[in-house]
Design a protein that fits this description.
2 copies of one chain form a homodimer. In chain A, 22% of the residues lie in helices and 29% in strands. Chain A is α+β, with helices and mostly antiparallel strands. The first copy, chain A, has 2 domains: 102 residues, Alpha-Beta Plaits, CATH 3.30.70; 132 residues, 2-Layer Sandwich (Alpha-Beta Plaits), CATH 3.30.70.660. In chain A, strands 1, 2, 3, 4, 5, 6, 7, 8, 9 and 10 form a 10-stranded mixed sheet that branches. Chain A starts with a strand and ends in an 11-residue tail after the last strand. The mean pLDDT of chain A is 94.
Chain lengths: 251, 251
């Protein structure tokens, strides 16, 4: 059967999601935990990689197993073998056609800033900014929302067929000293959310104008003032799928 | 001149405040930073030690220096030599009679819980509890507030003259899934706040009754159900002094 996992992790100590030699990754730690329970060497397929240091509140991954464990029991069984910074939030059976990667319809990321002086107790999940001009960030966000060729917001090294993506919404919320940017889209290029956050910040800092943001999206040429912001501020919040591919255990 | 520092730190990676052999401590890291700036080997005196893993939002410490640096400039100078998890929030000149330790009048600690399922992104600064009965915790807090012999809330190994202390207030606030217990007193014994938090939790869990809390405070004999809770939930929030001992640079 195919099992879908919903996963939360603090990415600080990991070299990202995907397995790579000589590095500790989230995928590897969870696959090892599954091996300890089932004796099976499974391969987890995630909705997408997260980079070194990026966090997740709702990463999704699937794997196939012949183990005689009921789908919802995988959650506690795997958790019993995981460190405190990785946690399975949900385990459920899905159709064999379900793919955590290819069936994903929508993803939401949060990029978090905190304003004011640097604070050790705020540093772990947010990027410090002396000041943010939320009003101009919201104006910039409006330019980015929509279907665009986002090649200007993509780090080199990725090999995708097309760099056209649709950003459905960008919401900016303030909660005390924390300012969160929620970006929802049908998919994201390598480093795309960190570039979007960097663009909002560059506009807030008056390093680039709204006109220049439009031009970047049109020309695909990124201005030097736009850099991908630090991984620690980024959290994969949610991955959404069509409901019909998720089996109901209770039937 | 004597300099008073107000300090924030994430205590996770440190073996507490106080210098000890073969361990990295907050005191040692700050003293090393001061040495890099002034060339002086100063000794920092803090309001009190914090244990391994305990955080601070407003720890206070003082040191004496002959360096030709204006008092408020120490802040940025020291910060330039500190790691991200320790930060000087304020530096100011104080009277030679001021002692961060002996002049302290009041201290406030926060003990933070989060309720619901375990969450990697909430684990760092709070202790997970499935459920907390805030109403009975508040009743328990009322029993603890006041002047008492708190020897039942003191780990062995401390050598204090008296175990009588005054707890001025215990406030319990809820913010979403987070429940914070703020304890203000004229001073605290070794592990005292972690025992107070443990007592509130034991009452919430119905492991001990309010009557038994009263009896513990009266007899000084701690019940086994009361344990000091994990360091990670504890933050030293504020240390208060008489204003008159703080010099005004601008005069």
């Amino acid at each position: 059967m195919r099992i879908k996992l919903t996963i939360e992790y603090d990415g600080t100590e990991y070299a990202g999601w995907q397995i790579q030699p000589n590095e500790i990754t989230v995928q590897q730690v969870i696959e090892t935990a599954i091996f300890k329970i089932t004796g099976e060497q499974v391969t987890l397929t995630a909705s997408g990689r997260t980079d070194a240091g990026v966090h997740a509140k709702g990463q999704v991954a699937h794997f196939d197993t012949n183990a005689n464990i009921s789908p919802d029991r995988f959650k506690n069984a795997i958790n019993s073998k995981l460190p405190n910074d990785i946690r399975i939030l949900k385990s459920e059976e899905v159709d064999g056609e379900f793919s955590a990667r290819y069936s994903a319809k929508k993803k939401t990321y949060e990029y978090r800033f905190y304003i004011g002086e640097k604070s050790p107790l705020k540093e772990r999940y947010a990027l410090n900014a002396e000041y943010l001009d939320i009003k101009s960030m919201k104006k910039c966000a409006k330019k980015i929302v929509g279907e665009h060729d986002f090649k200007c917001f993509c780090s080199s090294g990725s090999s995708v067929k097309t760099t056209v993506r649709t950003v459905y919404s960008i919401k900016i919320n303030r909660d005390g000293d924390f300012i969160s940017v929620f970006v929802t889209g049908n998919g994201f290029l390598y480093n795309m959310v960190r570039y979007i956050a960097g663009t909002l910040k560059a506009v807030s800092d008056k390093k680039i104008s709204l006109k220049e943001v439009e031009e970047m999206l049109f020309s695909g040429v990124r201005l030097n003032a736009v850099t991908p912001l630090s991984a620690k501020g980024l959290t994969l919040k949610k991955v959404e799928y069509d409901k019909k591919q998720i089996k109901n255990d209770k039937k």
